[in-house]
Amino acid sequence: MKNEKKYLFDNPKNVKRLLYILYACCLLLVVLDFIIHRHIMHEWEKLWVFYPIYGFVGCVVLVVIATWMRTFLMRSEDYYDNPTNKDVDNISSDNKMLNKKGQHHVDD
Amino acid sequence: MWMIELPPFVPFFIGALILLFTRGMLRSAIMIAIPIVSAMHLMMVPEGIHLQFTFLEYQLTPYRVDKLSIMFAYIFHIAAFIGIIYSLHLRDTMQQVSAMLYAGSALGAVFAGDLLTLFIFWELLAFTSVFLIWARRTQRSYDAGMRYLIIQVLSGVILLVGTLFYAHENSTLDFGYIGLDSVAGWLILIAFGIKCAFPIAHNWLTDAYPEATVTGTVFLSAFTTKVAVYSLARAYPGTEILIYIGAAMTCFPIFFAVIENDLRRVLAYSLINQVGFMVVGIGIGTALAINGAVSHAFNDVIFKGLLFMSMGAVLQMTGRMNGSDLGGLYKTMPKTTILCIVGAASISAFPLFSGFVSKSMVMSAALEEGYDWIWLMLLFASAGVFHHAGIKIPYFAFFAHDSGLKANDPPNNMLLAMTISAALCIAIGIYPQALYSLLPYDTGYNPYDATHVLAQTQLLFFSALAFVWLNLKGLYPPELRSTNLDFDWIYRRAMPHALQQLFSVIWQANRSLRDALKLRLNLYLSYFSGKNDRLSILLSRNYPSGSMVMWVAVILATYLLLSFI
């Protein structure tokens, strides 16, 4: 695999760099919060770095709740494709029982 | 001036008819020409009523132009144009014809000046679009299309009932402000709400759109829900309940989007989320809010189309759509990656992209009118939409782990369509005044003040930081092959199951009842035959039936003999 082309993010250093840029931007935005005078429409906005905290906490809560939702919402991929999986078993076992007893009904 | 009187859906319907009889380059040329010619025609049409006639004592207005409807007409033309370019490589008459009819139906609906015309196009939207789902020609898409059709037609039927009530109460069919003062108002709201993917009625969208064809989904995402948004904006502006419904629509789908594996289904959930912003805007009902809702609908058609197109390109080139199968495609699909990121930045409302200039209007309006909690929900939804549509979609498709899939960028026509959309996203973001001049109201709103830009950028960057942090900590839910239960479980699983149980109980009861009855009957029969045995030998059970058959044969033979004599 010597000849395989190296791509941008194959090098972990580049990923690191991108992350550092992100951290720097976040820091800069927090600093700007104190420099730029903003006209405030709502009292919550007066809180210290309201938007960054709301964004961060909001996303973490979102992901935590969504992950928890998986525990009771997740099913196998073909869940709806074979809708009567369980029911088919029931019917065949019913039939077996009937066959054994020889009770097939005229109306069946 | 018959040209002016020609409603815009007519060229699309005629075009669809011509498509049936043409092939190859000629067909492509006609398909591209129709939206361009029709849009040029539309620019010359003045506001007002251009077509009207009386039908069964009711005034019908199939062609009424005002600022609200023309705004939607423009965006539908743009969507049709982009969608057609995106699907130029197709050799599938069914899809091309139905896409043309579908776009025409949407145009017919927004220019409908009365409820009956609206109802007709409402149903046409359903019947023409379902072929875009069935065109995938799999059992799954057939089933999903069937469910889609049933729900859409149900919406139409409710609209018709509401229309009849409305006509009875007001003795007019005019489609204007309706409000919730009457039964008719509620029925029509429910009909609109189903098409608008209100909570609980939203599953037709997340069910059907991801099952449609690569190009079909692009068309589907543009028209149906936006027609519903238009109808709500016309009939229910300032209806308070819409604010709460809309806020719910912005919030709940993002949870599902985070854990969904099929990336086009993720986009379907985020479509509901975006429509939620529009519904909130309509519910608030001030000039600024309505402007926000309408312009957001305009932008959403473009950037959501762009995202569906980029995911369609991935599906087309790799044959896969699950986040768990994809990854690392930026290496071999660099152009698609960049275009997808533009779409992602637009839907996340980054400054200088189109989502920012329209979403902020709705949020500002919510604050101005004192809906603080709604505003907080919208803010949460903004962070959430960035999280799942802005980061998750590009990240799991193009970056993340290397899936080893080797694919190329899609055909040129697909790239061109995506490029047009991306250019529009950026152009509207940089120069929103062009969009604002088309809006129904003049509010002099300026999205680019330092406060807004800073607040939105902070929100987004720290959402991104949250994503990075969760990923590094290993807390981010991995993409898993799975189906997540949503409300459609009720009608796809619970109700059929309950009905099955119910029927099996009914059959059982029925059987035991009949058995008991037959037993009784047999008892009576044997009682009577037993009596007869004692009375006469002829009617007796012991008398063999074979002898009777013999006697009948003898009689018949005698008859035969006699007939020869």
Task: Describe how the helices and strands are arranged.
The complex is a heterodimer of chains A (108) and B (565).
Chain A: H1 12-35, H2 50-73, E1 74-75, H3 85-101
Chain B: H1 2-5, H2 9-20, H3 24-44, E1 48-55, E2 58-65, H4 67-86, H5 93-110, H6 115-134, H7 139-170, H8 183-195, H9 203-208, H10 214-235, H11 240-259, H12 263-284, H13 287-318, H14 334-347, H15 354-368, H16 372-398, H17 412-430, H18 433-436, H19 450-473, E3 483-484, H20 488-535, H21 545-564
Antiparallel strand pairs in B: 1-2
Can you give keywords for this protein?
heterodimer; A: 108 residues; mainly alpha; 60% helix; 2% strand; flat; B: 565 residues; two-stranded antiparallel ribbon; 73% helix; 3% strand; cell membrane (chain B); ComplexI-like_HydComp (chain B); ND/Mrp_TM (chain B)
How would you explain this protein's 3D organization?
The complex is a heterodimer of chains A (108) and B (565). By secondary structure, chain A is mainly α. Chain A has three helices and one strand. The model of chain A is unreliable at 85-103 (pLDDT under 50). Chain A has one domain (8-101). Chain B has 565 residues and is mostly helical. Among the domains of chain B are: 237-479, no CATH class; 490-564, no CATH class. Chain B has helices spanning 2-5, 9-20, 24-44, 67-86, 93-110, 115-134, 139-170, 183-195, 203-208, 214-235, 240-259, 263-284, 287-318, 334-347, 354-368, 372-398, 412-430, 433-436, 450-473, 488-535, 545-564; strands spanning 48-55, 58-65, 483-484. Chain B has a two-stranded antiparallel ribbon. At the A-B interface, α1, α2 and β1 of A face α11, α15, α16, α19 and β3 of B. Chain A: The chain crosses the membrane at residues 20-36, 48-69.
